[in-house]
Structures are given as structure tokens and as C-alpha cells.
Write a structure and sequence with these properties.
Number of helices: 13
CATH superfamily of the largest domain: Tetratricopeptide repeat domain
CATH topology of the largest domain: Serine Threonine Protein Phosphatase 5, Tetratricopeptide repeat
Distance between the termini: 37 Å
Radius of gyration: 24 Å
Region (Disordered): 1-63
Order of helices and strands: EEEEHHHHHHHHHEHEHEHEH
Number of domains: 2
Biased composition (Polar residues): 21-50
Number of strands: 8
Helix content: 40-55%
Structural class: mainly alpha
Strand order of the largest sheet: 5-6-7-8
InterPro entries: Leu-rich_rpt, LRR_dom_sf, Sel1-like, Sel1_AlgK, TPR-like_helical_dom_sf
Protein name: SEL1-like repeat protein
CATH class of the largest domain: Mainly Alpha
Shape: elongated
Strand content: 5-15%
Length: 371
């Protein structure tokens, strides 16, 4: 969920150009049973900014991940057959007769390489034809192909040209990438204000990568005044917070410190949707744990809180243990004790485990009675 951007020279694949998923390491000595550590992803931001209250220059170390052309857009124009998938004969005929949607769909088929052999040159040719007719998804895909050097030599001038055309038509994928190019001065002069405006437009359409970029900008004070609450809101929306069908937030290894987790805890205090919250592998200390404890005193929806591999000491554990005395819904709290953990720290963990186990039993009985 914590994406990096497209890299020059990478082939345009049928999947998003994402960073590798965090890898699991062997279980650490004295860690809670079943707990495995996770590696940190690359840094997302090196600070810089503009106006009053902000820093002086801006560069994200990783571009917004943009969906590759093969996975974007509607499936209109592709007839399906039960035996062999897309019927490309009819699709090619439509494309050759100038149907922009068919041209784009045919280009995607050459990228995916399912019904035909992968051919990036053919993909570039058909997507170019659709883009020249004003097809917004094709324009976004063509811009990304130029940016990545997929099917054509990389060319930031052409990338910016086609991404801008798509962005002006409201394509959120292109808007996020145009914002990235403005932020980092790729082909255009660095302009954090333009970057912020394009990221904002994309985020209004739900683009998760734009939300990630805005979170970074608010957190570090890039162009906008530093605002940790806004940074937290955008970070949560990266993982779908606010959508009724999203029940879990995975904020593993997001470099969340006490300041950031305090804002997250405040936002989650009365949340009635999220059931699982993972904050594993961050920089949360006793101060952040105390903020989470205050959240647990109010929140009645959360069932699992993962705090593995955070430097939380005895005061933080005690704050959570005290909060659990009044919490009747949380059923699992995951923490990692250091090898030198004191008896008092182990005692606090036992209190937490006892209360969560009791909560689980109570809910089990309630469910049994209702069935």
C-alpha cells in the first residue's frame, strides 16, 4: 500500500509499478508468539517546500505509482469468447476503422500479452492513435509510456505533454503524475503550488497516490503550512479510510511518529467502520501509545490493534492496559517486548491479554445467543 513510482526504463506491465511488499524476517527472540518483523520500505520524502511556515525546496523520492496502461480504462469494445478470452478480430476491425476506444483496448491487449504476444511497439502505435483522437485514458497511458520508455524512447517533454492533456480532461491518474513532475521539476520548472493543485484534483476523485503525496506535503510543510491532522487524514485515505466497505487499515512501516499517531488516534476515536488497525514497524513511543489508549477508551469498533516493532516502553504499555479496563470490544493487541523487558512490562502485557481474551469470550457468547 505504500507505493513508489515508475522507474525509467521499466517495461510497462499489466500490474501497478509498486515497491516490493515488505518481507518477513524470522521471529525475534522474546517477541510475542506468531509475530514476525517487517522491513522498512524506501523513504517516501526528503523535505523541502515554499511559503511561510514551510521548508524551502521539494522532492518526493518516489513518484506516485500510476496504473499501467494495460490495467486502466473500461473494457468496452472487447468481445469475450468462452474458449479463448478476448475476440481480437472484431476489436482490430473496430480499431482499424478509427474507433478510439477499440484502439486503446487493442493497445492494452498488446501490453498484457494474453490473447496476443506482448508487443510494446504495437501497444504504443494503437494507444497513440487513440490519444490523438482525444481519448483521455489513452493520453494518460501514452504519457506514462513516454515517461517510462516503454515501447518508445523515454521523453519527458512528450510525457508531460500527453499527461497534461489527460489531466485537463479530468483523468486522476494523469493529474497525480503531472503533480509529481511539477513537484520535482521534471521537464518543467519546480512548482510546488502547481503540484499541490494537481494532487488535490486527483485526490478529490479518490486517487490514493495523490492522497499519499498530499499527506507528505502537509506533514513536511511543502508549499502548504505544516498540518499534521490533514497529513493523517490523507494517509488514512491511502488505505481507503472513509469507504464503507473498508474494514482494515494497514499503516505498517509508514514512519509514523508520536505526532502523527496522535492525530490518527484522534480521527479514529469515534470511527465506526475500521475493525483492524496495523501500526507495526513505526516510530511510536510511550507518548503515541498514550494517545492510542485515549482512543481505546472511546472507540467501540476496533477489534485488532497491531503495534509490533514500535519502541513502546512500560509507561505506554500501562496506558494501554489501563484503557483496556474500560474497553469491551478490542479483542487483540499485538506488541513486541524487547529482550530486556522488565517484569512490570510483562505484567502490563498480561493485563492487556487478559482483557482482550475476555472481550473475545463475551462477543462469542453474544454471537451464540443471537444465532
Amino acid at each position: 500500500m505504500h507505493p513508489t513510482g515508475p522507474k525509467k526504463g521499466d517495461p510497462l506491465s499489466s500490474a501497478p509499478v509498486d515497491a516490493a511488499s515488505p518481507t518477513q524476517e524470522p521471529q525475534q527472540e522474546n517477541a510475542a508468539p506468531g509475530v514476525q518483523s517487517q522491513t522498512q520500505p524506501p523513504s517516501l520524502l526528503s523535505t523541502q517546500g515554499q511559503p511561510e511556515g514551510a521548508t524551502t525546496d521539494a522532492r518526493l523520492t518516489s513518484a506516485p505509482t500510476l496504473q499501467a496502461a494495460a490495467t486502466t480504462g473500461s473494457d468496452g469494445g472487447v468481445a469475450m469468447t468462452e474458449e479463448r478470452g478476448p475476440d481480437l478480430t472484431g476489436l482490430r476491425e473496430q480499431a482499424e476503422h478509427g474507433d478510439a476506444q477499440a484502439q486503446f483496448d487493442l493497445g492494452r491487449e498488446f501490453i498484457q500479452g494474453n490473447a496476443v504476444h506482448q508487443d510494446m511497439a504495437q501497444a504504443f502505435e494503437w494507444i497513440s492513435k487513440a490519444a490523438q483522437q482525444g481519448h483521455a485514458e489513452a493520453q494518460a497511458s501514452l504519457g506514462l509510456m513516454y515517461y517510462l520508455g516503454s515501447g518508445v524512447e523515454d521523453d519527458n517533454e512528450q510525457a508531460f505533454k500527453w499527461l497534461s492533456k489527460a489531466a485537463e480532461q479530468g483523468n486522476s491518474r494523469a493529474q497525480a503524475h503531472v503533480g509529481y513532475m511539477y513537484l520535482n521539476g521534471e521537464h518543467v520548472q519546480k512548482n510546488p503550488q502547481q503540484a499541490f493543485e494537481w494532487f488535490s484534483k486527483a485526490a478529490q476523485q479518490g486517487d490514493i497516490l495523490a492522497h499519499r503525496s498530499l499527506s507528505d506535503m502537509y506533514r513536511e510543510g511543502i508549499y502548504v503550512k505544516k498540518d499534521i491532522e490533514m497529513a493523517a487524514q490523507h494517509l488514512l485515505r491511502v488505505d481507503g479510510w472513509g469507504q464503507p466497505d473498508v474494514k482494515e487499515l494497514d499503516l505498517t512501516s509508514c514512519k509514523i511518529n508520536d505526532e502523527m499517531v496522535t492525530a490518527i488516534a484522534s480521527l479514529m476515536q469515534n470511527d465506526q467502520t475500521i475493525e483492524k488497525l496495523s501500526l507495526s514497524g513505526n516510530d511510536i513511543t510511550d507518548v503515541g501509545a498514550a494517545a492510542l489508549a485515549r482512543m481505546l477508551e472511546q472507540n467501540t469498533r476496533l477489534r485488532l490493534l497491531n503495534l509490533h516493532y514500535n519502541p513502546i516502553g512500560q509507561p505506554g504499555l500501562k496506558a494501554i492496559a489501563d484503557a483496556m479496563r474500560s474497553n469491551t470490544t478490542l479483542q487483540e493487541v499485538l506488541v513486541t517486548l524487547p529482550a530486556e523487558a522488565s517484569e512490570d512490562m510483562r505484567l502490563q502485557v498480561s493485563v492487556i491479554e487478559s482483557q482482550t481474551a475476555n472481550n473475545k469470550r463475551i462477543e462469542g457468547k453474544r454471537t451464540e445467543q443471537q444465532s
